[in-house]
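Hi team,

As requested, here is the filled-out complex form for the iron/sulfur cluster run. I kept the field names the same as last time so the parser does not choke. Let me know if anything looks off before we queue the next batch.

— J.
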Amino acid sequence: MSVKWAYTTVNTWRECNRKYYFASILANHNRKHLIRRKAYELGTMQNLTMWKGSVVDKFLELIIIPKIAEKQELNFQNLSEQAVEFAQKQFRFSENKLYQNPEIKKGNMESEYCILDIHETGQPFTEQEVEECYDDIRKAVINIPEIILMDGRYLIDILKEANWIKPNVEDRLVYVGNAIVKPQMDLLASYDWKPMIIDWKMSDSMVSDYARQLQISGLTIYKKRLDTPGKPAYLFEDIKLFEVNLLKGSSKQHDFTEEIYNTIIDYITLTSRDIALMTGDDIELEDFELTNNQVSCKNCNFRLLCGYLIKNNNTYDEGSYLKSVPSRQLV
Ligand code: SF4
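And here is what came back:
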């Protein structure tokens, strides 16, 4: 049986089996089953730090990259203010809990759809923190023309000279054994007819993690080419992987070699077996172990739902769950 494999899914599985169940098995955007819908909303929910990054990603995807592709002249000062307005619309969407309105479909509200933990689960926040998010969004956009990518050349010039550029690529699919691998790439470009993959970042956390995500994207592009009849295989060094930190205005290139390729193939093969064992129609919440790691629980989007279900013998009642939320703010 084939299984959908993603790096984040494996990480979630390793962090907490029950969290994996909520995120990858239970969550469904359909409103027919209230618990499944709630798991979907919680899985999509973001804290302010994640949110400011996703605003800039979306703004690049919908506004900036299409302008670059059309070779338009860009005024980054104006664009930075536009990005803040874009963020403010998302904030109001979340604040008004419009995601709970069944008339509103995510596909029709792509640029505004947003669920913030400060509104959904009552995470405490200050106006100052929100203002700091807007400042960072402004700064990230203003930094774009200053970023140097490779050979001392500006990112913006490289993107303008590229054969083609595509933001938010999610349709490159390959099989590794029984695993279906379809990573999300912030930007895929062809420069000198060779692939270039860019991951936009707004923070500094585990750098090796960023590298691995980009290398999985590199593997997908490499392998897909092998499966394309009539085209010569890429050399490993043809595939360029860049992590671009928009807040710092810096970039970092990650390696892609045969050794890395083989290591990732082994990793996918091994971990997809774990996922396959826990995928199936007869799998229940009770089959999934809770973690003992309090740090994982503290940062878990499903914390309130998880606690509610433990208290209520794994039975969900939306009214009673919602009543429990304000009194159980995440600290
Ligand atoms: S709150 Fe803790 S135990 Fe529950 S799903 Fe999240 S990480 Fe797992």
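Two things worth flagging: The mean pLDDT is 92. Residues 16, 18-19, 22, 290-291, 296-297, 300, 302-303, 306 surround iron/sulfur cluster (CB under 6 Å).

Thanks,
J.
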